[in-house]
Amino acid sequence: MPNDHSARQYHVDAAKYQEMYAASVADPEAFWAEQGKRIDWIKPYSQVKDVSFAPGDIHIKWYHDGTLNVSANCIDRHLETRGDQTAIIWEPDDPEEPAQHISYRELHANTCKMANVLTDLGVTKGDRVVIYLPMIPEAAYAMLACARIGAIHSIVFAGFSPDALGARVNGCDAKVVITADEAPRGGRKTALKSNADAALAQCKDSVKCLVVKRTGGETSWNDGRDHDYTALAKDAADSFDPVEVGAEDPLFILYTSGSTGQPKGVVHCSGGYLVYAAMTHEITFDYHDGDIYWCTADVGWVTGHSYIVYGPLANGGTTLMFEGVPTYPDASRFWQVCEKHKVNQFYTAPTAIRALMGQGPEFVEKCDLSDLRLLGTVGEPINPEAWNWYNEVVGKGNCPIVDTWWQTETGGHMMTPLPGAHELKPGAAQQPFFGIEPKVLDPQTGEEITGNGVEGVLVIADSWPGQMRTVWGDHERFEKTYFSDYKGYYFSGDGCRRDEDGDYWITGRVDDVINVSGHRMGTAEVESALVAHPKVAEAAVVGYPHSIKGQGIYCYVTLMSGDAPTDALRKELRDWVRQEIGPIASPDLIQWAPGLPKTRSGKIMRRILRKIAENDYGALGDTSTLADPSVVDDLIDNRMNRD
Ligand code: 6R9
């Protein structure tokens, strides 16, 4: 029988939410001055907020005269009271391999060792370090070691290709890349080091490579460049004085896809980000001392940054880090891990829920999930069917579900129901977090739409401490992307509906970003990968509804004249894109298009391509501006079957 949580004392109940929310938007300075005390400062701040969303003068600063060290906040300050408490539970890919329980004291020693090794490689405050690791404890040590030194980490998801890795190393001019020999995942191994080798061939000779031994698999070795972390760590000292950094000194860069061009480096800074990650982690998940908390994300995504490492550790929590996948060795793995480690809060993505739902309830039912108290989702809208399954089969109708809407750019949760404060609605992100002022705008006029029962684009009226500060090396792009369409607001790129009760429902991206299994992919990135193939003349990429992934990648490809459209070429193009970007960008459907629908000025009419990909070609809307309307008929006749 599941535990009865009805008598639970939540951090925030309905009345407290109302009162705190009102205070947070009435006087943000006072509210955040108080919340800033959640973390330890070396030099306390006297300034809380210095923000402008005004065109030409976008700047965002929080606590900017305060100084701190993020790793000291996540480790050292807990040593006295909880040195022997488990900070990280590590569950490996192979269930036969023992799990590790890393105490705060051990986390301290390991982070210091990593900081010493990085320092010996020449890394100092402000330098960039790229982390390209499997989900192993060293990934957390590496993040925290950078923070300890005041260096800036940029994690590249281990599923990304050498080209994508190389571009990111160059993009932030990294001094060191940290990788591992191999990454085990779902019983298979990815040759990470050889990917890193291929990436580093595209980078400056001075970039060093620090290699963690994970499997002991064979790797090539470049003596001048490669350094064996496992050997160096043995002899490294296990103490390292945390370096004092300013609140606005960057903590990390994380590349994310946008609607145009190549991925941009989202910059998060030390003070405000940590306050926001800690606060949202505690309140959204109703985290209490002693709880075992598990977020299934990868540290390669923002969710892993804020809700595997920084938020939970800043709160002195116990956070579970999982190397594997939900379906290995079988579809009960998530639930077995919950049972084995007595997980209290479980946070995953709708795509995983949908995939597991398809395997049947027996994989869940055979596990003892009585310690589960709260469930969360993130990454994409959750359909009510998946929500109900999660609620009933996993949560036994007894665990509140927090559907958390936020973004790489926002650093932490922006809208979510809070357990104990809100009546849940399946599929709704519901209410803003403290200090967040969502507004719905008319996409055409940019005017605010007030009242309830309305729909439009979602913007945020004022800053919050977790907000990104800039695009790495390109502040103009920051302003253009987020602040130019709707002046005076942060534009999320999402659409939303505010229902009759004033609850928010995210309706999905309104730009050319698609969301594949909760991962953001810019259609422009896939297109540029496709047109880089010598046989491709032109390509247009759109999303279409996919029952497991949320959205699938639908590509329209025009070949160079003389090249034959064959299934073999389809496969070649698919492999090509995987090679250029990574498996998550793998096209689901490729349609040969003799021509693409364009306006007379040569703009591809994506609206039409989207409709065809969605099988909704009865309602193509106005096609009168097309240069050659006949191409549309051909595309409809030859459209691909969806899943
Ligand atoms: C944290 C993360 C951000 C985009 C965002 C939106 C979608 C995320 C969602 C959601 C509906 C939710 N998204 N959470 N849509 N409901 N609970 O996912 O960051 O990878 O940057 O993606 O994901 O479209 O704009 P990121």
From TrEMBL:
Domain Acetyl-coenzyme A synthetase N-terminal: 17-74
Residues given in the record as Mg(2+) binding sites: V531, H533, V536
One GO cellular component term: cytosol
Domain AMP-dependent synthetase/ligase: 76-463
The entry's keywords: Acetylation, ATP-binding, Ligase, Magnesium, Metal-binding, Nucleotide-binding
Modified residues (N6-acetyllysine): K603
Binding-site positions, CoA: R185, G186, G187, R188, T303, S517, R578
Cofactor(s) annotated in UniProt: Mg(2+)
Pfam families xrefs: ACAS_N (PF16177), AMP-binding (PF00501), AMP-binding_C (PF13193)
Record PTM text: Acetylated. Deacetylation by the SIR2-homolog deacetylase activates the enzyme.
Molecular function terms, GO-annotated: acetate-CoA ligase activity; AMP binding; ATP binding; metal ion binding
GO biological process, one term: acetyl-CoA biosynthetic process from acetate
CDD domains: ACS (cd05966)
Reaction catalysed by this enzyme: acetate + ATP + CoA = acetyl-CoA + AMP + diphosphate
Location of the AMP-binding enzyme C-terminal domain: 525-603
EC number: 6.2.1.1
Residues given in the record as ATP binding sites: G379, E380, P381, D403, T404, W405, W406, Q407, T408, D494, R509, R520
Family: Belongs to the ATP-dependent AMP-binding enzyme family.
Function summary: Catalyzes the conversion of acetate into acetyl-CoA (AcCoA), an essential intermediate at the junction of anabolic and catabolic pathways. AcsA undergoes a two-step reaction. In the first half reaction, AcsA combines acetate with ATP to form acetyl-adenylate (AcAMP) intermediate. In the second half reaction, it can then transfer the acetyl group from AcAMP to the sulfhydryl group of CoA, forming the product AcCoA.
Protein name: Acetyl-coenzyme A synthetase
